[in-house]
Amino acid sequence: MVKRLLRLDWVPVVFAALILTGIMSYYAGHYLPLAAVGSLVVMLVQFRVLDWIHKMRWRGWLIYLAGLILSLFLISQLIQLVEPSQQVEFFIWVLTPQSVLDFSGSYTLVMFLLFGIFIGFCVHFFTRIQYRVLVTFVLMMFPFLLFGREGDPMPVWLMLLLPAAYFAVMIYCRNRRPSSDAPKPAEICSGTIFLWIALAAVLILPKPAVQADRQLIESLLNFDSLTDFLMERINEFTDSSHVDGFYQNSSKIMFYVQAQEPLNLKFKTFTLYDPATDTWKAGKQDQKPDGTISPAEDPVNVDPALLSNALLHVLTADPSIGARYGLDLTGFSEQPRTTARACTVYAEKAQYNFGLTPTCWSICYGANNSSVTRSGVLYDNSVMRSYRVQYYGQQDQLTELAVYLNRTLDQEQWKQLLRHAWFGASDLPAEEREALKRAYRIVRYSRLLTDDYMAADAPEIPEGVKALAQSIVGDAQSDLEKAQLLEQYFWHNGFVYDKTYYKSPGENAETFLTSTRRGICFDFATSYVLMCRAVGIPARYVEGYSMNETDQKGMFVIRGDDAHAFAEVYLTGIGWYSMDPTISAGDTSDGLQVDSLVRFIGLMVLGGFALAVLLWWLLHRRIAEAWFRWRVFRTAPEQAASLLMARIKKQAQLSDGCTAEELSRQLQVQYQAGCDRILAALEQCIYAQRPMEGAAVPGLYVEYTLARDRITQVQREARKKRRKRKKGDSMELA
After folding, report:
1. What pLDDT score was predicted for residue 350?
2. Is 197 buried (19+), middle (13-18) or exposed (0-12) by CB count in 10 A?
3. Residues 66, 114: one domain?
4. What tens digit of pLDDT does each residue of 79-122 get?
5. Sign of the C-alpha dihedral computed for residues 237, 238, 244 and 248 taken in this order
6. pLDDT confidence of 481, banded at 50, 70, 90?
7. 3-state secondary structure 615-682
8. Which residues pair with 577 in a beta bridge?
């Protein structure tokens, strides 16, 4: 039984199966036994088919080519059939580290088939037909390179078995190889070319992989800990925020959101900015609730239309209140009730203690132990897997009366108006009285935080930012107009959203506004908040997620790389209002053009290298021969004869120490080729010391070409005989 197994040439089969198993251990580690058995079966079948194809010669290769095309077509159809049911495209799935993706059985099967065809063919060809030590080494390194590229730990058993199998293949192939068949320069050249191409395919291909720190070399990343890092990063209310946090991307799905419109959802706020370190720090109002605030008492937002109607009813019933603040309500009418919108958030797998909410949200359903920070962030003391939040849209907030009050009153007058309206609302319906009470409590909270949110002389606001903000708002009267002018400033003054730009030490919001004008959402939101505070508008820095992608069911998909920073400003008469000064990536073509240009140049370089290798492979013999001919006809006749004789010796693989007569005899015996005229010319020049005429060189070169062609023909026939002999030996063993 053992002898029969050895006669089946199991060594290269096991070697190929181990390589495929090692690759699949990266994509399907939980199904490793199944992958190992499948790899062995696939390689056995493929080796048998390739042996038959090699026996059939060109007819077999035509059949194999047709089968290969059919297989690739079926695999492509399988990918198209599978992709709609997956959360990520196949190409992105291949290039993304598997540690941050969900297991996909369909995609794993496709990878198994593709790698199985490639590895099986290469191992069979370079062990059973033309053994190449460098090529088999590169094939053995594929699993190592795959794990090493992503920084994942490689199984110890795989690290031990693959080199052992490689050395077994070396012994196996050397035992089958004739002793005279030593490696030639052409073999070394082909192996080197294959090595470079394989390394380029594995290491140079662009990877939209999740990166822990894009400033570091990708090979240094440890993606095993990246997922845990991302989960911890968003699962807690951190005390600080820095621009580096937005370079830590992940394509892993984190939330699904069912909503009527795309929104910016917040989960963290920061109040204090440090320009020296370009870092936001949390204030007291940004901290987790201590549990003493019940959800019913939290300062959530109220229906904007209900609040406007309550104010209108109070001011109409008691005109003296409006007159005290110089209000003219002529022409204002009651607003129809605002229909609260809803968004439902579903956490994907992981469970979080914070809630994603729009800025102007009112009620949360499904969070049984929830509370709200003083900055309006929803938090739950347990976990929040799914919940529904009611909110009001930004246009709903801009009622006619609210815009008028924003243009007429300052912060202190707005607070006093709400206080007087609340005390004078005894005859109003209960819901309108409640709306006034909650609005007063909101503005009271905001007023208590004024020193943090709007201190224009605070040291964290650089002088350059103050001067720029004042010049932008000009003579604008209302806070709403000022906020909109500051937001629009980023859209029309050469600012570029560029995620490939990294700040130098010392750069901060001021340098972003005055010099670089290139950055990401962190820089846009930070600069905007500081400019709002510089002109007296309470503002806070907010972090959360943007909603850009939808699935087939129409639900918004939020991934790790949808992390976004924006701002919230408190507007008199309106309340907390979301502002997003960040230019969309689609509007900043400069950074994308640079990235596209780099990719294009890279492709051109790789394409040029591949074309140069192909042309050299096809033409290097002709180029070398043309160069040799030029040397022969440009040199002295005596040296030309020596060059021709040395060239013949090299091609015939004869010893340099043999005499002219020995050389002539060996050429006649082994190759039936003659070089009598070249030998005679050498004897005339060397032994007789007589000069040779230059006119004799063309005749000598013609004799050299005849001998060269005959030597090449005999060597080609000898190689064919060796291959037939090898094939016969393998058939006898089988």
Report:
1. 55
2. middle
3. yes
4. 666 555 554 556 656 655 555 455 667 777 888 888 888 888 88
5. negative
6. very high
7. HHHHHHHHHHHHHHHHHHHHCCHHHHHHHHHHHHHHHHCCCCCCCHHHHHHHHHHHHCCCCHHHHHHH
8. 569
Nearest to 644 by CA among 686, 596, 685, 704: 704
Distance from C-alpha of 138 to C-alpha of 134, rounded to nearest angstrom:
6
Q: Which domain holds residue 173?
A: 1-177+185-201
Which residues sit opposite 378 in a β-bridge? Answer: 372
Query: Residue 632: inside a domain, yes or no?
Result: yes
What are the backbone dihedrals phi and psi of residue 336, each rounded to the nearest 5 degrees, phi first? Answer: -65, 145
DSSP-based three-state secondary structure for 407: helix
Instruction: Check residues 184 and 48 and name the one with the higher pLDDT.
Output: 48
- Hey, CA dihedral for 274, 275, 279, 283, is it positive or negative? positive
Query: Residue 22: helix, strand or coil by DSSP?
Result: helix
Q: Checking phi first, is residue 517 left (phi over 0); if not, alpha (psi -120 to 50) or beta?
A: left
Do 416 and 552 share a domain, yes or no?
Answer: yes
Question: What are residue 194's phi and psi, to 5 degrees?
Answer: -60, -40
Q: In terms of DSSP bridges, do strands 253-258 and 341-347 run parallel, antiparallel, or are they unpaired?
A: antiparallel
318 phi and psi, to 5 degrees?
Answer: -130, 85
C-alpha to C-alpha distance for 300 and 310, rounded to whole angstroms: 17
Q: Which amino acid is at 289?
A: P
In angstroms, the Cα distances linking 378 to 143, 427, 560 are 46, 34, 20
Give the pair of three-digit tokens for residue 24.
């699949």
Tell me if 325 is assigned to some domain: yes
> Is 469 contained in some domain?
no
Q: How many domains does the chain have?
A: 3
568 and 674 inside one domain: no
Are 646 and 635 in contact by the 8 Å Cβ rule? The answer is no
Q: Alpha-carbon distance 56 to 50, whole Å?
A: 10
Strand partners, 265: 545
Note whether residue 191 is domain-resident: yes
| DSSP secondary structure code for residue 428 in this structure | S
Phi/psi for 27 (5° steps) reads -90, -25
The residue written with tokens 């390179």 in the block is 145
Specify whether 31 is located in the same domain as 98: yes
What Cα–Cα distance (Å) separates residue 42 from each residue in 2, 8, 18, 107, 144?
22, 15, 12, 18, 22
Residue type, 439: A
pLDDT average, residue stretch 248-277: 84
Domain shared by 570 and 637, yes or no: no
d(CA 694, CA 673) in angstroms, rounded, equals 24
Residues near 1 by Cβ (< 8 Å), separated by ≥ 6? none
SS3 for 356? coil
Written as six digits, the tokens of 230 are: 């991302």
pLDDT level of residue 612 (50, 70, 90 thresholds)? confident
Together in a domain, 576 and 683: no
Q: Give me 271's structure tokens.
A: 């109040």
What is the chain's Cα-based Rg? 39
Q: Which two tokens stand for residue 164?
A: 């052992």
Spatial separation of the C-alpha atoms in residues 303 and 262, rounded to whole Å: 21
Task: Give the mean pLDDT of 135-139.
Answer: 83
Backbone angles phi, psi at 252, to 5 degrees: -70, 135
Can you tell me the distance from the alpha carbon of 620 to that of 622, in angstroms, rounded to the nearest whole number?
Answer: 5
Tell me the residue length of the chain: 734
Task: Report, as an integer, the average pLDDT of 205-229.
Answer: 40
Find how far residue 359's CA is from the centre of its chain.
Answer: 31
Rounded Cα distance, 332 and 313, in Å: 11
pTM (two decimals): 0.52
Q: What spatial distance separates the first Cα and last Cα of the chain, rounded to whole Å?
A: 14
Phi-psi region of 557 (alpha: psi -120 to 50; beta: other; left: phi over 0): beta
Tokens representing 473 are 């708002």
52 vs 63: CA distance, rounded Å: 11
578 and 641 in a single domain? The answer is no
Shared-domain flag, residues 555 and 664: no
